[in-house]
Amino acid sequence: MLYWLSVATALITAQSFKASAFPAYASLGGLSQRELDVIVPSLPAVYPPPPPPPPSYTGTKLVHDPDHPWQPQKPGDLRGPCPGLNTLASHGYLPRDGVATPEQLIIAAQEGLNMNNRLARFATYSTFLLDGNIVTNLVSIGGKSNRTGVDPPFPAIVGGMSNHGTFEGDTSMTRADAYFGDNSNFDQERFNQFRNFSYHYGDGYYNLTVAAELRYHLIQQSIATNPEFSMMGFRHLTAYGEATFPATMFVDGRTTGSEEGQLDMDTAESFFKHSRFPVMFHRSNKPRGIEPALDLLAVHPMLPGRNVAGVNSFVADLSMGSTIEYCNMYTQLVNETIRGLYPNPTGVLKRNLKINLRYFYQSLEYDYCIEVFPYGMH
């Protein structure tokens, strides 16, 4: 069974976890009704505001500017598996402690990386619904810290984007699979592969040609080494999406012609390893989405699925949707995963879930997907 579905059935005792210690940014997903009854009334409830619109200016501009200097992490600051969000936090486009609202995530992705509004909303609300605190309207871009209070026993969700099987998933470009112990921090061995493929297929640059080859290689590598490898549904989409980002959003927006979409290795290391914009870095010259993801998939077609009996036992499984079965992915994510995390919400939790699910649906790339209402329309 998928990790996040098993998490949804996890139970912990209320005696082992005091509501006063529960961090305002931690996820409520997977907690029992008894725990929710104790914790939710203690949290500062926030009515979810509507998502921000596109910015008025969407061209290239200096983003490593005097208003957004890079600062190293302080003790307790949260960073996670996404180099883009880590960089935005280290430059102050997001709160530097790594705890943010959905609105802050959308604005930061647009302002700092020129991510298009629809993708920024889709990435934010899908992630927030899985890993954020629906009551307080906060989410961690990382995982556990000494600010989370007493941890509930495994496998209950503690919160944050480092939580495996929700936003974060196997076969990352620069993070190891969770099976090997650390799925959140920069992995030098993975980056060495990123670099080697860029020299072999891209003359020293990472581009979409490199992305297609590296993406396929990393999937095959995980199948062969990770007995618990899974790339189901939502992760099938994000795996191909994240492979395009470096070539579209980490390249200086002033590049033109044949240099456009060509990421050099020094810049790549600055983002991936140091969470830092290069000096005088300008964001992309136009809003970017994940349209190239389908192009990558076409080079080496790969269905979603998982290892079912140890390494090299990959079985395709379309039950949770995929990059090419977008609407089914949305339906299954809502009806199975999110509903599994929150089977019987009440009060402000139910209200905020319904509001955020509406925002999520409105962010979908394709308008023909049928909206689902796991908690009723009204």
From TrEMBL:
Keywords: Heme, Iron, Metal-binding, Oxidoreductase, Peroxidase, Signal. It comes from the Eukaryota. Transmembrane segments: none annotated. Gene3D superfamilies: Chloroperoxidase-like. The keyword Signal applies. Residues 66-298 form the Heme haloperoxidase family profile domain. InterPro entries: Chloroperoxidase, Chloroperoxidase-like_sf. It holds the Pfam family Peroxidase_2. GO terms for molecular function: metal ion binding; peroxidase activity. Residues 1-16 form the signal peptide. Its cofactor is heme b. Belongs to the chloroperoxidase family. This is Cloroperoxidase.
